[in-house]
Amino acid sequence: MLLCDSAAAAERARNGVERAGLRVADIHPIAGAVDRLDRQASVDVVLIEIDEDHGPALDSLLRRIRTDAEADRYGSVVSVPLHLLDIIDATVGATDKIRILCDGNVADLASELVEAAERTSPQLQDVGRGADRLQQLSEEVGRIASALAELSEDEALAQPRPDKANGGGDIDAGKVRAIIRARRLRDQYFRSELFADPAWDMLLDLMAARLEGQRVAVSSLCIAAAVPATTALRWIETLTDHGLFVRVADPQDGRRVYIELSDKAAAALENYLRAVQRLSPLAL
Question: Residue 272: its pLDDT value, please?
Answer without folding.
Answer: 85
